[in-house]
Amino acid sequence: MLWLLLLLQVWASCLWLGHSEVGTSFDSCLEFFYQNTPPNSALKPEDPAWICQVYDNQYCFATLYDKSRRIPMYSAYKYEPGESPKPQIWMVEPQLMGSTYPKEMNTESTLIDEYHVNIEEIKRSQAVLEDYQGLKGLTRGHLNPVGHHPTYKKKLPTNTLTNIVPQDEKLNNGAWTKYEQGTMIKKTKGCNSTYVIVGAVPGNSKIPSGRVNIPSHIWSSACCETGTGMRAWAVIAENNKNKVDLLTLGELEAKLASLYGLKEVSLFHSDCPRK
Description:
- The protein has seven helices and twelve strands.
- It has an eight-stranded antiparallel beta sheet, covered by helices on one side. A two-stranded antiparallel ribbon has the order 5-6. Strands 8-9 form a two-stranded antiparallel sheet.
- It is of the alpha+beta class.
């Protein structure tokens, strides 16, 4: 009988698409931060979750998630763009429901149909697909973009709602896409490796479901190693305008400190130039 139970456990684990690790730090996935240095604690929300996003037994990126606002504060990854197909699967994070749940991220339908998880259980700690249904003027905006990864398997984990914010539709399809697909290509020329942190500043309103915060600003920052030294840049956009402002890393950190009412925000290791 014991061998049968073990066999069932192995079989069940094979049904999951991938997995994430939720904890109190990024110790398991520091590789996505330059010099293994995450941002300082200034951007930490009141109800945080540190998620090391994993798929196919490989760490893919890191996300600091705000469980009460149901949006990510930021996602960190290494820039490796590719032209493979865009995934259509959307996933959620079971472990946000509690430490007794499996680490694996998966689709809502699999959790409900195969593991008999109630949708209300999922909704308590994170956004779900129905939150984003029927939005007007807003879209599901990736912080860690699909197009900044080389293969389907690397792109798929970005399609988790723990990496998504309600983003202005014109901005997401306009100036922000131009930055992700155009400016980033120009800026990373000559870079041997590029580390990126993309974030959202919480706003004062929610989408119609009343459960998910609409960020006031979307921002992105990058630090890269070249053959002759370091290079850094940043952008920020108000989440109701189709306009992206190009900044230095230091200017973005100062802007975020002002928006959050903080003394200091540090996004990268001190080796990354602020000017």
